């Protein structure tokens, strides 16, 4: 199980440049263009409703334009697929200008497809002599199909018509207590790679604290602290750092963040409240690395049931819960108190909807970070929501499964309505 957890953390905690849904589109586009090796005449892209929703209004690093079409154009013009989720990192200023010009030619066509699969991106290119196809599915950087001139180069299973099938990850077969015990028994050398996430995510947060970017949620909290309206306490510092990083990232600042479970904003929420705790109450590297591991692992545990993308805000229901568990652990909480902080989070933010990636996410991340610290602190004093309280079950694992049912089964219609509302506004 130790190896399973470490392998999972290395797979799920990785740098990402830009919002991961448009980045997935850019990645698929870059791969399809590399296969095409020709001048593009037609570009038809099909994406799952959740990718469509999350990419609609978000900033893209390197350009002032928003959304999937510019991300796709940038992937086609200058993206390098070998960079994975940092596919846009290689673009120079002149590449971005060419991508904007290419977008204006209206060659790129993007349509949502009717599928229960959360992450699906299909890019079909036709050139003057060649054609190509690239498909990403399940995870944002997971290619399942590659094709050039009708020659299949990679052929994985694709089923868009099937109902969403839940497949347990290996860590879902143990309890939260067992998961944390495994991490506690690890060495610093096993988890040291996670520490880079604090440095990376603090750096992008500091950019938005020095300058008002996007809505300026983090910047506004910082000013309120300086003016004495807010106190310089743990909750407000966690809110400030997490919101500021989201302000910068959602505005398209050209800096990578450490993601968690396929989402940059999840990474900000899973990491920065812990970074705030470390700034207020400095920890040694081993304790800090283990806290980060707990946060990412609990986030993964919850995402196993809620799904990769959904109608509920993953930062609010998953990554912030990971943070709450880790902060409770850092404060010396026992296993019951750690489980209690998770129960408190499920009782609190389970209804926060996801209406796509955009500037307003900074407000949700501020709420998520605040709730994480609050839930951890009151759990430390044994103030925990009782069993059978709403969707809270008899055991923490039951509560997480209940949250998953609400998210993956109960909110399907809600997600469809959210997308229709956003689509109607963007088409007006």
UniProtKB/TrEMBL annotation:
GO terms for biological process: L-cysteine catabolic process to pyruvate. One of its GO terms (molecular function) is L-cysteine desulfhydrase activity. Signal peptide: none annotated. Residues 84-419 form the Serine dehydratase-like alpha subunit domain. InterPro entries: Ser_deHydtase-like_asu (IPR005130), UPF0597 (IPR021144). Pfam families: SDH_alpha. Belongs to the UPF0597 family. This is UPF0597 protein SAMN02744040_00514. It comes from Tepidibacter thalassicus DSM 15285.
């Amino acid at each position: 199980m130790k190896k399973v957890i470490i392998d999972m953390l290395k797979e799920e905690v990785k740098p990402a440049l830009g919002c991961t849904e448009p980045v997935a589109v850019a990645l698929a586009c870059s791969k399809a263009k590399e296969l095409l090796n020709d001048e593009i005449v037609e570009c038809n892209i099909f994406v799952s409703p959740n990718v469509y929703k999350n990419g609609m209004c978000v900033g893209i690093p390197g350009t002032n334009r928003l959304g999937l079409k510019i991300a796709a154009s940038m992937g086609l013009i200058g993206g390098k697929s070998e960079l994975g989720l940092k596919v846009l990192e290689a673009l120079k200023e002149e590449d971005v200008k060419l991508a904007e010009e290419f977008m204006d030619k209206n060659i790129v066509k993007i349509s949502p497809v009717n599928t229960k699969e959360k992450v699906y991106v299909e890019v079909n290119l036709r050139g003057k002599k060649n054609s190509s196809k690239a498909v990403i599915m399940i995870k944002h950087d997971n290619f399942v199909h590659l094709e050039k001139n009708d020659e299949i180069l990679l052929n994985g299973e694709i089923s868009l018509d099937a109902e969403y099938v839940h497949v347990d990850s290996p860590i879902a077969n143990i309890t939260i207590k067992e998961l944390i015990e495994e991490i506690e028994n690890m060495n610093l050398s096993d988890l040291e790679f996670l520490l880079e996430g604090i440095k990376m995510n603090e750096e992008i947060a500091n950019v938005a604290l020095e300058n008002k970017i996007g809505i300026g949620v983090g910047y506004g909290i910082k000013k309120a602290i300086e003016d004495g309206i807010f106190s310089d306490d743990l909750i407000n510092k966690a809110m400030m750092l997490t919101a500021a990083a989201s302000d910068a990232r959602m505005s398209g600042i050209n800096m990578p963040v450490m993601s968690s479970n396929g989402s940059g904003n999840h990474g900000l929420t899973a990491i920065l409240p812990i970074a705030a705790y470390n700034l207020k109450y400095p920890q040694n590297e081993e304790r800090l690395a283990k806290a980060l591991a707990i946060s990412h692992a609990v986030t993964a545990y919850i995402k196993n049931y809620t799904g990769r993308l959904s109608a509920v805000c993953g930062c609010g229901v998953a990554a912030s819960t990971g943070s709450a568990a880790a902060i409770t652990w850092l404060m010396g909480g026992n296993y019951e108190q750690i489980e209690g902080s998770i129960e408190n989070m499920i009782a609190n933010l389970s209804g926060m909807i996801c209406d796509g990636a955009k500037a307003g996410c900074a407000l949700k991340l501020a709420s998520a970070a605040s709730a994480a610290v609050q839930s951890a602190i009151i759990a430390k004093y044994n103030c925990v929501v009782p069993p059978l309280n709403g969707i809270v079950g008899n055991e923490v694992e039951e509560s997480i499964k209940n949250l998953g049912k609400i998210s993956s089964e109960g909110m399907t219609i809600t997600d469809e309505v959210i997308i229709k509302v956003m689509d109607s506004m963007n088409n007006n």
